[in-house]
Amino acid sequence: MQYNQVYNFILPKLEKDLSPLYTYHNAEHTISVISSAEHLAMAEDVMSEHDIKLLKTAALFHDTGFLVDAENHEDHSCALAKKHLPNFNYTEEDIASICALILSTKIPQNPSNKLARILCDADLFYLGTSHYTERSKKLLLEFNNLGITLDDRQWAEKQLHFLEKHTFYTQTARNECDTNKKKTIHELKSKFKTQTANNRNISAFMSDSFINIVGVLLSAFALKGFLVPNHFFDGGVTGMSLLFHEIYHINLAYVIILFNIPFVIISYFSIGQSFSLKMFGSVVLLGICLVLMPTIALTSDKLLISIFGGVFLGLGVGLIMRAGSALDGIEVLALYTLKKTSFSITEIILGINIIIFSIAAINFGIETALYSILTYFCATRTIDYVVEGIQAYSGVTIVSSLSDEIKYHLVEKLGRGITIYKGERGYLPGNFDVHTPCDLIFTVITRLELRRLKNVVHNIDPKAFIFVSAIKESSGGVLKKIVKH
Description:
By secondary structure, this protein is of the alpha+beta class. The chain has helices at about 5-15, 25-45, 50-60, 75-85, 90-105, 115-125, 130-145, 150-165, 170-225, 235-250, 250-270, 275-290, 300-320, 330-340, 345-365, 365-390, 405-415, 450-460; strands spanning about 395-400, 420-430, 430-445, 465-470. It has 3 domains: about 5-150, Hypothetical protein af1432, CATH 1.10.3210.10; about 210-390, no CATH class; about 395-470, Alpha-Beta Plaits (2-Layer Sandwich). A hairpin with a 2-residue loop joins strand 2 (about 420-430) and strand 3 (about 430-445). The protein starts with a helix and ends in a 15-residue tail after the last strand.
């Protein structure tokens, strides 16, 4: 076998005739595979010169198929070996062995003997070396050149999937490369998680921005279509702004922005920079909408104005709150005041609104103030509905002598998670001394599931004691995901 002569014949072809599109499968890669094959053969005690020549020849030819076509290049490589090797004193048996070695490198690799295991490891030896990043960039460029476009996230995912499935076949390659390969896998996982988190953050930002804009538009519509043309009021900073606008006839857009600025500043120190910036953006956007949107009285019916003005305003403010922002600084003020006084947030907000509606009653009449209170009530109910959602959670506690059967139905039939407390039932009037141990079953369900749960429990034990409590927020466990508006 004239290996040196065939090397001098094939390598120039790879250097000159291969398309420049192949930035990875090129002469440089072939030289690297030959070198790695020699190194592994020595380390794995391959002493036969004949076997080493077979191995190096297979490494030399294994990617020559790219001279013909990238698809099924291993088959094309074998065809070229059969065509040229007879001219360099390779027997048919030698060529068959070389073709078998070349075909073993086809992904997924399938080595059937020691030489094949060495060649497979030599072909992908870079996976466990410091050259990995450089070679992977060349492979990505080759994919892009061939029309296979992958972004950074897709490429990281593809590499990670390949590396986790790949295994080195020789002990030498495992000893020398596994540590670096595991390090690369760890780095790719970190990069992939970062990219995934960034994509989620961008998606969340876009979603929140859209919801925020819709909320501002609905709020502006409520003000310019219902409240402002009919001289109605609301609670909170919006109510103060409307009151100030009606008394002093200053443009409402400027008043709302001006009145909210102190609360934006307070929120910066009491809640955080991100929230304060979102709130400021929402308030400014509302001001712009109020300037651009014409004032049109959609109805003169006071009851309709109160109800639908409140509903649309509540929808807008609720959506903005779902987007992680705020349009009214009254709750920021209440939160700040809560830290300084013994009053609750509800008491603080109620006190401020009593002052607002009292001033409205003095200046514009009791009737207007009462309708404005109705507007405020409709707005707050709508905000609760939008923020909590139709599937707001409820905590349900069940006390029953048939607790085992109820537990089974809750978990297996309704798919709910449950928590069991140990207790005692009994202690009834006239039978105070009669009591028995029992399981207190607690579960969290959505509002829509409550009737179904009660029916299930009642069918099992009509005498079961059930009580329900509202849950403002919950996470983790076996919970249905609330639909995000």
